[in-house]
Amino acid sequence: MGTQTIRPRPGDELQLTIDSLAFGGAGVARLDGYVVFVADAVPGDRVLASVTKSKRAYAEARATDIVEPSAQRIPPAANHPGAPWQVLPYERQLEVKQEQVQEALTRLGRLEHFTLEPIVPAVEPWRYRNKLEYSFGADEHGRLICGFHVPGRWDQVVEVTDCLLASEQANAARERVVQWCRTAGLAPYDRRSGEGFLRNLVVREGRRTGQLQVRLVTGAGRLDRDGCSRAAQPADGVLWTRTDAVAETTQHGQTELLSGTDRLEEEIGGLRVRIAPEAFFQTNTEMADQLYGLASEYAELSGFERVYDLYCGIGTIGLLVSPRAAEVWGLELQEDAIANAIDNARLNEIDNARFFAGDVRLALRELTARAGNPDVVIVDPPRAGLSQKVVRRVIEASPRRIVYVSCNPTTLAPNAAQLTEAGYRLIRVRPVDMFPQTPHIECVAVLER
Ligand SMILES: C[S@@+](CC[C@H](N)C(=O)[O-])C[C@H]1O[C@@H](n2cnc3c(N)ncnc32)[C@H](O)[C@@H]1O
User: Fold this and answer.
1) What digits encode the pLDDT tens for the residues 94-152?
2) Is residue 271 part of a domain?
3) Which of 120, 204, 323, 347 is most buried, by the most CB atoms less than 10 A from its CB?
């Protein structure tokens, strides 16, 4: 197409028909073959969209008005920036996720001859998250609000009074703390000027233990510690993190325990685990159980294997498979998480699992030198997947089987492709819906040499 003549520019308003959904959840529309990714639109919609970014090969836009709604649309349950796919029936969400895993593996990874098993649907379509990170802001009257960023707007917050992804007890805790902040006259942090105090509120829950943790994240300033702590009751732990980070993050500040304990406890796969405030834990406890069950099934352990659990977090996967392995070696970047993993092994009387803090990129060779070559490697990396170098290191370690737990099929695909070039075969893959009402996709894959 003559992209020079009709390539849209930022700010342009276009009328577009959405024909599919892209990875990450945007609607896909075509202008004479030129692709426009449209946020807040689903297949079948005819929308007015405002262009936010324009490149040679594609543009990005946001739907500002629905001219003709798709026949697939259902009414949203709530205005919730964290649940963009709630306008699609749940069955349709599952179909799209299944198709996107298939497409990533076959088109991006050019993989073939594997079995794609049907997606495991979520047990709870709403109120499934055990952790929510809210942001503070102000409404147009200057009133303190707490909720989520408007998609694509780092400086604007939409108030959420009943977050449908959180449990009722977690919602009530947030509301009590926000009300107290209002009464105490605390100001939200202004993301443009860097002034103000209140940045985020993190509410975390042990879904099976009923425990609750509330962590207030602020900039520099004074806090009435007792007042804040009382407002959060009956939380099991109340924490205060101070940070001067420019980026919107709840990590790496200075954290102080205001009351109770800083270790949240949860039950998963029959284990009792402790989780440090900044350590990763799968956000959907119920579905994490199923995800781990699949990872364990795919590992096909017989009791004699040496297993590596790479990107092990607080050790959950390694500890779960440990009764069917000879030994488990876990590696994870975050020291707090490793301290939890060691503690969790002790708490569950597991004595064949060892955990080390280190960067997989740098420490994997060292681990192999120390522990010996693994029979089975389990990896569960962040969304960016494994770097090519890490894949080479895994190949060098030469496991018979690799179980890959992935939260992003578009990075799983090239990683699996690189492994198949080195002599592994992708055997089977199964998506698990950990994140209903959102475009996020989790899956487990197994490769064998
Ligand atoms: C998706 S989480 C998985 C954690 C764990 N397997 C679980 O199920 O709870 C990814 C983990 O990788 C860790 N991580 C990120 N980059 C890493 C690196 N370069 N080396 C080691 N661990 C890393 C993160 O801290 C996080 O705990």
Assistant:
1) 999 999 999 999 999 999 999 999 999 999 999 999 999 999 999 999 999 999 998 77
2) no
3) 204
